[in-house]
Write a structure and sequence with these properties.
With 237 residues, this protein is of the alpha/beta class. It has a single domain, classed as Rossmann fold. The protein is 45% helix and 22% strand. The chain is built from 8 helices and 7 strands. Strands 3-2-1-4-5-7-6 form a 7-stranded mixed β-sheet, sandwiched between helices. The longest helix has 18 residues. The model has no long low-confidence stretch (mean pLDDT 95).
Length: 237
């Protein structure tokens, strides 16, 4: 990637964002306060946030699970797509990040429909799984009433396959699963890599390819976040 290429990617992203995903004060402040608190600058780009928002709307999502909150920027984009009685649960390992996210989400007026659970995501997912089963046991019909309609996975990449397996447990036929940062600057193609993030990402992609209850694809992207991409999977019956 040359400097000229990166500048062109930035320019195109700026054009798309200004035209189709203009910032508002709430989103701008969420990013600013995340920077002030020293959070890493790894939130989704504005046009990617708008994509998450549109996917949630297209999905008709009423319940969303997010794995990896950071400062709550993507959380706000997703939660804004929910109906008034919708619910979003977001999992964050770092208490300091969760503190910033709570303030950002409250400022957005979304704290009534967004719940942040703090701790290792695999532990939080196990608790969610137990709650899920409890609801199913008390339901009058076989369908699980607390299933998530959309899951956005954007946390540590080492556990991507584990997160995906939990997403399958907590969703329903027709649910949508989005897995971010799957290209890793092109390194995802390296079958000999020993990088845990690459291994975790490849395992998740292979799971999408092989699992009988999943169908999906992956897309490369370039822009202000560099060279990366995401995978999109639909849960089958």
């Amino acid at each position: 990637m040359t400097q000229e290429q990166h500048e062109q990617w930035d320019s195109v992203d700026d054009y798309f964002t200004t035209l189709l995903a203009p910032a508002d004060e709430t989103l701008t402040t969420a990013l600013r306060d995340s920077d002030t608190a020293g959070l890493p600058r790894i939130a989704v780009a504005p046009n990617q946030g708008k994509l998450l928002h549109l996917l949630a709307q297209i999905q008709g999502a009423r319940r969303i699970l997010e794995i990896g909150t950071l400062g709550g920027y993507s959380t706000i984009w997703l939660a804004r797509a929910l109906p008034a009685d919708g619910r979003l649960i977001t999992l964050e390992h770092n208490p300091a990040h969760a503190h910033v996210a709570r303030a950002n989400i409250a400022r957005a007026g979304l704290d009534k429909i967004v719940e942040i659970r703090v701790g290792p995501a695999l532990d939080s997912l196990a608790v969610l799984g137990a709650e899920h089963e409890e609801h199913a046991e008390h339901a009058e019909r076989a369908a699980r009433p607390e299933a998530f309609d959309l899951v956005f996975i954007d946390a540590d990449k080492v556990n991507n396959a584990h997160y995906l397996e939990w997403a399958l447990e907590l969703t329903r036929p027709g649910s949508l699963i989005i897995l971010d940062n799957v290209v890793r600057g092109g390194a995802v193609t390296d079958a000999t890599s020993t990088d845990p993030a690459i291994l975790g990402t490849r395992s998740a992609l292979e799971l999408i390819a092989e699992h009988p209850r999943l169908t999906g694809t992956a897309v490369q992207t370039v822009g202000t976040k560099g060279y990366d991409g995401f995978a999109l999977a639909r849960v089958l019956a």
